[in-house]
Structures are given as structure tokens and as C-alpha cells.
Amino acid sequence: MKKVWIIGCIVLTMIVIHSCEKDPLISDPNAVSDYQPTRYHLKVPPGFPDYFSDENNPLTLEGIALGRKLFFDPILSRKDNISCGSCHLQEAGFSDPAQFSLGTHGGRTAVQSMPVQNIAWMPQLFWDGRAKSPVDQAFQPVANPIEMDLSWNEAVRKLQDDAFYPDLFSQAFGTTEIDSLLVSRAIVQFEMTIVSSESKFDKVLRGETQFSELEAFGSELVFNTEEGDCFHCHGSILATDNLFHNNGLDIDANLAPGRFDVTENDEDFGKFKTPSLRNLVFTAPYMHDGRFNTIRQVIDFYSEGVKVNRNIDNLMKQAHQGGIQLSEYQKEALEAFLLTMTDSSIVTNPDFSDPNK
Ligand code: HEC
Ligand code: HEC
Fold first, then answer.
1. Tell me: the pLDDT tens digits for 173-228?
2. How many CB atoms lie within 10 A of CB 138?
3. Which has the minimum average pLDDT: 20-34, 121-135, 226-240?
4. Which residues are within 8 A (CB) of 181 and not within 5 positions of it... i.e. 6 or more apart?
5. Dist CA 147 CA 56 (whole Å)
6. What pLDDT digit, counting tens, does each position of 247-261 carry?
7. How many CB atoms are closer than 10 A to CB 229?
8. With 0-12 CB in 10 A as exposed, 13-18 as middle and 19+ as buried, what is 354?
């Protein structure tokens, strides 16, 4: 009899636990009963690999709309003056035309802003790769004292006190209780929709058009291992290997730590994440410190400005002579090819614009 009673108790407890698990929203006083978000299917463009999807953060129209509003809203900064979009401007391919960006107190970032594009395919983010996913990245600018300088507690309180946000969170996530994770997830949903796949380069790969003679010659330089060999690092349809390299910008004495800050491995000193070659026409200046203002300056660097340092990558051809020694015509061709990776929809698509304007 006693045994039956104990088993009965265990079964009862399991039923209670199970029913809680089954519908966690029942215990949440902020839960919304008519939560029915509209799923959004992010298409993999032709020729692209599968993106990294986050099963905890399925894209929905409501989540994307909320993320877009948050991305452009200075409410996430201490002085209500800086949004993500202040340093990632749509007209600049979601990068910053300034060499360094200004934060909420007017201080400058230590490195150049990076374009927000095709982040659904990024296993690591930031120049040194310290963020392991887009959501991990989105957590960081708000609390960063130079950038937005708001503790997450304060940021959440501001959103919670806002007239519109609690309702927008309930539409996107089924709860009016805002937290940093939901804020980051919404922003990432919006960012994931910023896909660049409609450049001439893409259309040539899809067989829809052809390169001009000059562009075709430039593409040979990029893909030819004996010549430019750019594709070893800026390879794949994403125009980046998403890995870390030292491309010979500086001599030893001037190397910035880069990837070393994350791994503390001396071999990583002076290595940075390979940026994509997509949309360069919008995203100047170039390199982690924005030292080059034009594509031509970058080409001149790879041609005759490369410096040998202790960690320079083996893939940097003819580094001991300062670079790959291109003729004037080769430089023009290389630039013409790089410009085929321009996808103007990034800067014109109204879905990516500031919804608060
Ligand atoms: C004050 C300027 C500033 C603000 C505000 C800012 N960023 Fe950035 N962002 C940068 C800079 C600079 C980098 C490069 C930082 C680094 O590598 O250390 C960067 C890097 C990134 C990257 C990495 C891209 C890649 O290719 O790895 C993403 C994504 C990004 N920011 C999104 C955001 C989001 C989302 C917000 C708002 C929550 C935001 N940023 C706010 C300046 C800013
Ligand atoms: C060994 C790998 C490697 C090779 C080979 C290489 N790059 Fe790079 N590239 C990088 C890295 C890493 C950076 C970023 C370096 C930094 O900021 O410190 C970069 C930066 C760039 C940038 C600046 C992009 C931006 O948004 O700031 C351009 C443009 C570029 N490379 C073009 C080329 C071209 C053209 C070639 C071939 C002539 C080439 N690269 C060869 C690794 C490489």
C-alpha cells in the first residue's frame, strides 16, 4: 500500500512538472495568449552554402520588424544619440564612411566599423573574431563604454518603459517581458535579412550575364594562384574564408594584436578576420584601421606595399619584393573585377532602411 502511494506521488509530480514544461507560458504572467507570429523563410541564394540558422531564433516577420526598429533606435545608447545604424549606415553598405566611429559620448572606436552583410554565414564576428555567433555579437555594442555605454539592465528598463516596445516584443516573442537575449535575437533576425547576392559577379556565376574583357582579365588575377591569388583568403561566393590572416600591412614593430587578443597565441598576433570583397564601393575606408580610402590604394598595397613581418601569411605572394607587382593595366582590371561584386540593392532596399524616419 505504502509503495503504491509513493509511486502515486511520483507520477503526480511528473504530471505537474510535465504540464509546466509543456506550456511554460502558463506560468508567465506577461505571456500573450494570441501569439501567432508569421514565419519568414530566409532563402539561400543560388551558389551560396547553407547559412548558420539558430533553432532558438526562428525568423518571423514580427521579429524582423522589431529588430529593424531596434537597430535604428538610439534608445539603446546612454545619451539617446547613437543607434547600431549610426555606425552601420545603409548608404555605406552598413559600414561607416568615417575611419573610426563616434560613440554615445563622442569617443572613437579603436577599429573601423565592419559592414553588416551576409552575417547569416559568419561563424565568427568582429575583426578579432571574439563573437561566436551573431547573437553573441549583438550583445556587445550596448554595454561597450565607447559605443553605446548602457548596462543591459538599464537598456531593458528603457525598452520596458517605452510606449510601443512591450507590445512589439509580445508580437515577436509572445511575451511583454523584455530581456537582453530577446533584444539581441530580434536585431539578429533583421540583420540576417541583409543578404548581398545580386551583384554582377553573382549573375555571371548564375550564367545570366558575362564579364567585360577587363573584368574577366581581373578575375583571372584574383583566381590565378601564380598571380594575385586573392581567392585563397577572399574565396568562396562570400568572398571571404571567414578566417584570420596577416596580410602584411605592417612591420613587426607596428603590428596590432588582432586575433591574438582572443587566443593569446603569438602566431595570431597581427591577424585579422578576412573581410568580404562584396560592396567595396560603398564600404570605404578599408582594413581594420581604415588606413586606405580607395580601392586603388588597396590594390597598390597588394602590388608593391606589402611588408614582411613575423606572422605574415604564406599565401602572400612575393612579399619580399613588396607584393605581386602588377602593371597599370592589371591594376585597372583587378579594380574592374572587384567592382563587379557591387550589389546596389543593399543601399537601396527600403526593407533595410530606418523605419523610424
Ligand atoms: C559606435 C559605433 C558602433 C555602434 C553603435 C555599433 N557598432 Fe557594430 N561595429 C562597430 C565597429 C567599430 C565594429 C568592429 C569592432 C571590432 O572588430 O572590434 C563593429 C562590428 C560589428 C559587427 C561584426 C561584423 C563582422 O563582419 O564581423 C556586427 C554584426 C555589428 N557591428 C553589428 C552591430 C549592432 C547590431 C549594433 C547595435 C546593437 C552595433 N553594431 C553598434 C561600430 C559600432
Ligand atoms: C593571406 C590572405 C589574404 C590574401 C592572399 C589577400 N587578402 Fe585581402 N585581406 C586579408 C585580410 C586578413 C584583410 C584584413 C586585414 C586587416 O584589416 O588587418 C584583407 C583586406 C582586404 C581588403 C579590405 C576590405 C575591407 O573591407 O576593409 C581588400 C579590398 C582586399 N583585402 C583585397 C584583396 C585582393 C585584391 C587580394 C589579391 C591581390 C587580396 N586581398 C589578397 C587577407 C588576404
1. 999 999 999 999 999 999 999 999 999 999 999 999 999 999 999 999 998 877 88
2. 26
3. 20-34
4. 135
5. 27
6. 999 999 999 999 999
7. 20
8. middle
Contact 320, 202 (CB under 8 A): no
Ligand 2 atom closest to 222 (CA) = 37
Would you state the pLDDT for residue 224? 84
**Amino acid at site 310:** R
Which of 229, 247, 281 to mutate for ligand 2's pocket (most ligand atoms within 8 Å of CB)?
247
What is the rounded radius of gyration, in angstroms, for the C-alpha atoms of the chain?
24
> 87 C-alpha vs ligand 1 centroid, how far in Å?
7
CA-CA-CA-CA torsion sign (127, 129, 133, 136): negative
| CA of residue 268 relative to chain centroid, distance | 21
Distance CA 74, CA 82 (A): 5
Q: In terms of Cα–Cα distance, which of 343, 203, 222 is closest to 280?
A: 343
Residue type, 112: Q
- Mean pLDDT, residues 54-61: 97
